[in-house]
Design brief:
166 residues; alpha+beta; five-stranded antiparallel beta sheet; 3 helices; 7 strands; 25% strand
Length: 166
């Protein structure tokens, strides 16, 4: 932990550090699975424990975004990049997945699933849009491709996290 400068009242306040995890993964189902597992481990280490609603939701968002990068953003021989970021205020978690395929851009999901409900794919961004506080995409800054991101608002940085098993 770092400390903030002394305030006018003469007390020192502790600051929560900014937390960031980022890594490149092979653009394969195995790479997406590893990204999901490492993100889950890191979230737990950051105080968002396994088995809680925020942890499970964030891991599901990571799973959907990385699966989309593999399925729709795959370029042979190119990896995808995952970044999970919690700013110092600890109020949100931002997940970014960058791939190198520029011609396949994310589309806003339809408001409701198709009537018959038999399709086996096409719901990833619909799930992300329902779970995340907000999400979007932007062109990749350092080359071809795009970054799809989602933000999830935590209840409060100091509030206890509720268990999904409760």
């Amino acid at each position: 932990m770092t400390t903030k400068p002394v305030d006018p009242a003469g007390t020192t306040q502790l600051a929560t550090p900014t937390r960031t995890f980022e890594m490149c993964f092979t653009s394969t189902p195995r790479g997406a699975r590893l990204a999901r597992r490492l993100a889950a481990l890191r979230l737990d280490a950051w105080g968002i424990p396994y088995g809680t609603d925020p942890h499970d939701t964030l891991v599901l968002i990571v799973a959907e975004l990385t699966a989309n990068a593999v399925r729709h953003g795959h370029v042979p021989g190119r990896d995808f990049h995952l970044r999970v970021h919690v700013p110092a205020d600890g109020r949100t978690v931002r997940i970014e997945v960058t791939d190198t395929r520029a011609e396949r851009l994310p589309r806003r999901p339809a408001p409701a699933p198709k009537a018959d409900g038999t399709e086996e794919n096409g719901r990833g961004l619909l799930i992300v849009s329902r779970l995340a506080t907000r999400w979007d995409w932007h062109p990749r800054a350092d080359g071809p491709g795009k970054t799809v991101w989602a933000e999830y608002a935590l209840a409060s940085p100091s509030a206890p996290v509720s268990s999904a098993r409760d």
